[in-house]
């Protein structure tokens, strides 16, 4: 209003704020009585532009008081002029003078108190202004803003017209403030809104959840405690109404905060524990709905499984997440999309009654989150709960990455292998698509330092080797892919070229196309890593004999070693296999099968083992002792005179003598009582005795042979008649006859190769011959 206006001009230019307020209030009341809204707006405009927004501090102060007085004078009608009343006051919130900011806060308090619910349409600008005052350095201003804040909270709590949709974008923006007072202000408002029954803030939780976790990492204990309360209230509400929760939209946020980027910050432990707890509840509440996002969940969960007791709670929550997620994978995840769509899920003829389906690769990496970098998480493709697809490709990618990472903890590696085993059991058809890429790393894992990791790894490899889903055609890639390996598949592995049982190398007992590939690569790894063979070789083979049939293991390895070009390794490997065969409890059934050779199958197995055992003469003799081929054992020992007798050779004979005294050969020692029917057993033992120098083993075997009774003293009348009438060779059925001469010739050929190789090495190496002249 200009100075020409007779109605109010003279009064607005009073220098004293008190008088100005009095006359302005009187004027406004008069205009209200006259229902003159134009003059009311004119008064407010003059107070705002010429006073509240003046350059002079006292004028600004008077303008603020005048605007508050106008609001009081307007009473219930103030709601019609709130925009004109509020805007100049909010502008003064940014004044550099703390006293002006305080008067602005006081003025706004009076305006809001009069208008009450009418201010809700202007809530966003009020909230924005208050969020700034909450961080004001002046205590008086901060105190005034707290009074205004409480008033606004009361109004929002009482009203049912609060526009949450319009408020959420502002809340999402302000929640990322780093100022502690601003954070306290934000979190207090969220707590209030969550407590109002008519306000469903849960629908908008995905918008603010990340910010809440950021606030949870605040250095202030009080703010962290309040934030924990807010998150706890949200989680309670989620448990009450899981059907209305947007799990997919919040899962990414949890994945990010389950991963700690800076372990030196103690607050990160709280963030991680809270996020992991939420993740556990999400999996349990949402069920199979979370399966499309399982790769991201595993990215967050698996590293936590290797935490020590300092993070015991987080580790336990992660373990629960992992266990619950694994239980969600069922055979129906092996279905084809066509089968799923038609509702007719018929299993294939060459696989178990499980189904197969296509998966979407939703694993990706994001560096956009505040405070986190290089964080992997998933991107859901659809929120439609009716379409649940297991993200198998993403899961395998995550598992494979953890296996390749040398820094992965032991418990995490075990969990990864458990996952692989579970997936091969539940979804074999789909998993065998990834076997070629997983296979090399699974073999490498056999060199792990942990026995438990190796056990789980062997379980996975055994399942791959024995699953019907892994069966391919005979012309498949299994054999072709290994054609360049040092350990070649023997030519006779599939079928023996000759008709004589002892001449052929029997075929490997049928498993699937990966079984023989596994055996080849395992022996290759033993060949390249001799320490692995020395330290873990027996352990690995014994466990495989439990997981797969022991006959399959020995049959296949014997086939492969038959054509092994590294003769030294072949001899060492045969010695290892022989020791396992003779001493391991896991091989009890196989030993009994070989002991009597009563079937054609057992004879074929003996011939298969014998041909490879020829790489190690002492092992060959022990195999003959085990199978009670004493005459052939004696014939072999007779040939030892033509062999190069080294220290290693004599040490093996020494070990054989020790084995003869062990429980494994109890039956052999008892057969020494029957001298007349076991003459070649005694001759063979005397042959070993003659090979040994006069060592402890010599004394042990010599003492045993001195205990052999005189056959004349052991014979009784009835027994002599029995022996005279007893047919020779009733022990072996006629169809198990073997050509022992051919076996001896094979032994000679193998030993000739070994001798030739040793001579070649001796000629190249500059060291004294280790041969002992007896």
From TrEMBL:
Pfam families named in the record: Vac14_Fab1_bd (PF12755), Vac14_Fig4_bd (PF11916)
Domain of life: Eukaryota
The Vacuolar protein 14 C-terminal Fig4-binding domain, residue ranges: 530-708
Any one biological process term the GO annotation gives: phosphatidylinositol biosynthetic process
Disordered: region residues: 326-362, 755-774
UniProt keyword annotations, A-Z: Endoplasmic reticulum, Endosome, Membrane, Microsome, Repeat
GO cellular component: endosome membrane; PAS complex
Basic and acidic residues bias locations: 346-357
Primary location class: membrane
Localisation: Endosome membrane; Microsome membrane
Composition skew (Acidic residues), residue ranges: 331-341
Quaternary assembly: Forms pentamers. Component of the PI(3,5)P2 regulatory complex/PAS complex, at least composed of PIKFYVE, FIG4 and VAC14. VAC14 nucleates the assembly of the complex and serves as a scaffold by pentamerizing into a star-shaped structure, which can bind a single copy each of PIKFYVE and FIG4 and coordinates their activities. Interacts with NOS1.
Biological role: Scaffold protein component of the PI(3,5)P2 regulatory complex which regulates both the synthesis and turnover of phosphatidylinositol 3,5-bisphosphate (PtdIns(3,5)P2). Pentamerizes into a star-shaped structure and nucleates the assembly of the complex. The pentamer binds a single copy each of PIKFYVE and FIG4 and coordinates both PIKfyve kinase activity and FIG4 phosphatase activity, being required to maintain normal levels of phosphatidylinositol 3-phosphate (PtdIns(3)P) and phosphatidylinositol 5-phosphate (PtdIns(5)P).
Stated family: Belongs to the VAC14 family.
Protein name per UniProt: Protein VAC14 homolog
Provenance organism: Oncorhynchus kisutch
